[in-house]
Backbone:
């Protein structure tokens, strides 16, 4: 098969062992397209915050192929997400990784796909495949976002730098599935109210910060734009006051993520403004949704998984009331591009 | 004064000398808010592509203050842009830099401002302050975007890694002012046609890739959203096909940057799609606008400056025909936030 599916701690150990006499691992690249790129965002912020010496970047697959970092090679780990294993740009990036001698870890949902032959390690992540995204009985700790984080956590922990919050991190991972399940139940009624109120809108903004900005990005591009054909943008709550906030009025709707952890005050500041000048605000508050039981030293990195799995409850209601099923496409997989 | 204004090559040399016995420089952080953050984007991509060993990140000021990278300290350079030197979040970040012993370089337009006391080095950049952004007689090589790039270029060149395209880079910098002046003249008539066509629109998207994505971001948040109150988002041309392109129709307008250099094929692919399914497309093509005289090894990094200085011609016409002056604000500097 040319690949093995095993757990991420062992994968990282095996890579470090194999690279020991070749200069070790000096860089970690997170590469993907659209939602698969967005899902890697928390791992990017983890490296920026926690690692002093390992270079890291978060890059769209096609950009990575055409504008490859000079140092990318046998001292690099390439982590890619590719849902069905058939995204051409991501396959190209994986091939490039092979050619350059990088250790290529592919996070995918399908065991049998085109991309797997170009990965040194294939990690099959968990995913809620139910059409309405409402089943909610999956292991959320096994999703791609957390798999990418595990690579970062393990790399740091198993190298010279170390990661002092290692145990707390896995404690958090052990709690996330229950938190998400409860949160999804918790928002069920308000999701219906949201959908009814937003039924005739043509634009919806998402907002967020820190490690969970990726969830705001994914909701904006994959759901509102792709699956509902709504105008949208994901606004960073720290950037809001330096341009975007001038569009705020009584009509424009915002979905704002209030993270738990270090960037919460950025989100709260944006919310206070919205509550003064906007009328249509949907608040996803990680504290209210139960995330605070995770230790403060690591909670930042779990916001994304929480928000990303609460959104489907809203999406289901919105698609239903708008009579625009989430699976509807006019271009994707239908025309040449 | 507590700061000196000198040239960037000397600044970097002085920092490296001062840090020689303290472990040297290991990280370079680009920090700012809104347009001042967007302007630092090319320097971020430069570090990602060209540097193997110096850690770099591009972070909103308020996020940087609340979620500071663990390694940030005396082995770091902090480069910040702050136009009038009075952005509270950026001042906080500068203070933090001082406290932590980082070398703080502040790029600003005003010599006398609140922030300068927190900078070890103050770089006064050039800026076209004419209300209508049409004077165009400034030294574009002295703008903040290029000043940030000079820091990155010098840091690489003066440390172990070296930068083999150093001479080509400065050759390009020597050409950019004339290129931009010609390009601004070149788009004058089409900017009027664009403005007339877009007069009654409520949404305009910008698109771009690579080092010039920052210019698309700035145009979207600082002009269309902030100064024209239009719905907008900056779409990465490599991400376009993984979600956003589903909003494409005959009505929605796009301004697309076709970069010269390594990511050009991403932009061209998006353009081909737009030309098939959209009707309102404004193309800013760096090749047509004269950027190709800059050497291919460094041309990527000059796209942003070109696009960012061609946009004002369009902005002026759009603001005029919409009778919505660019200086109009409803919240910024007017209400508490």
Residues:
């Amino acid at each position: 098969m040319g690949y093995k599916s095993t757990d991420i701690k062992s994968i990282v150990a095996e890579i470090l062992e194999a690279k020991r006499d070749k200069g070790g691992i000096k860089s970690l690249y997170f590469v993907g397209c659209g939602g698969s790129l967005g899902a890697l965002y928390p791992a990017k912020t983890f490296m920026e915050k926690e690692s002093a010496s390992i270079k890291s970047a978060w890059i769209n697959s096609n950009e990575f192929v055409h504008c490859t970092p000079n140092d990318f090679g046998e001292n690099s780990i390439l982590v890619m997400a590719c849902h069905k294993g058939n995204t051409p740009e991501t396959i190209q990036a994986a091939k490039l990784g092979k050619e350059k001698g990088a250790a290529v870890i592919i996070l995918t949902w399908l065991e049998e796909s085109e991309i797997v032959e170009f990965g040194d390690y294939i990690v099959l992540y968990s995913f809620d495949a139910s059409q309405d995204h409402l089943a909610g009985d999956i292991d959320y700790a096994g999703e791609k976002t957390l798999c990418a984080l595990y690579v970062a956590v393990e790399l740091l922990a198993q190298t010279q730098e170390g990661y002092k919050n290692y145990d707390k991190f896995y404690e958090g991972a052990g709690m996330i599935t229950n938190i998400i399940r409860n949160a999804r139940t918790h928002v069920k009624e308000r999701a219906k109210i949201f959908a009814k109120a937003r039924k005739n809108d043509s634009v919806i903004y998402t907002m967020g910060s820190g490690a969970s900005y990726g969830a705001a990005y994914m909701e904006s591009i994959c759901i509102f734009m792709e699956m509902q054909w709504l105008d949208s943008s994901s606004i960073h709550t720290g950037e809001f006051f330096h341009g975007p906030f001038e569009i705020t009025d009584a009509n424009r709707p915002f979905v704002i993520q209030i993270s738990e952890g270090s960037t919460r005050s950025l989100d709260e500041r944006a919310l206070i403004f919205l509550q003064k000048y906007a009328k249509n605000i949907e608040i996803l508050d990680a504290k209210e949704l139960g995330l605070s039981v995770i230790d403060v030293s690591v909670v930042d990195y779990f916001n994304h998984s929480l928000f990303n799995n609460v959104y489907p409850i809203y999406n289901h209601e919105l698609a239903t009331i708008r009579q625009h099923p989430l699976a509807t496409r006019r271009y994707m997989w239908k025309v040449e591009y």
